[in-house]
Each structure stands twice: as C-alpha cells, then as structure tokens.
Write a structure and sequence with these properties.
The chain is mainly alpha-helical and 47 residues long. Helix content is 45%, strand content 0%. The mean pLDDT is 85. The protein has one domain.
Length: 47
C-alpha cells in the first residue's frame, strides 16, 4: 500500500460543482479513508 503514505490530495471541486443543488454531498476523504484501507487489507488477504 505505498499510496497510503503518499502526499495525496483529494480534490472534489468538480464533483461538488456537478452535485450543487442536488442535495447530495461528498464527504471529506478523512471520514472514510481508514475504511478503504481496511477493505483493501481484507481483499489482499482473500487474494
């Protein structure tokens, strides 16, 4: 998981613009990033 230690920037500017007025909000990556890593770890064990 080398990308987990990279200095990544999650830019959701375009998504926010497209969803403006729909009532749908994209959460900040901090709120779900750990869950993504846990999923990947489980998927790697299953492979």
């Amino acid at each position: 998981m080398p990308y987990a230690w990279s200095n990544l920037i999650f830019d959701k500017t375009r998504v926010n613009a497209l969803l403006d007025g729909t009532g749908i909000r994209v959460p900040h990556a901090r709120t779900y990033f750990v869950k993504l890593l846990e999923y990947q770890a489980k998927a790697n064990k299953a492979a």
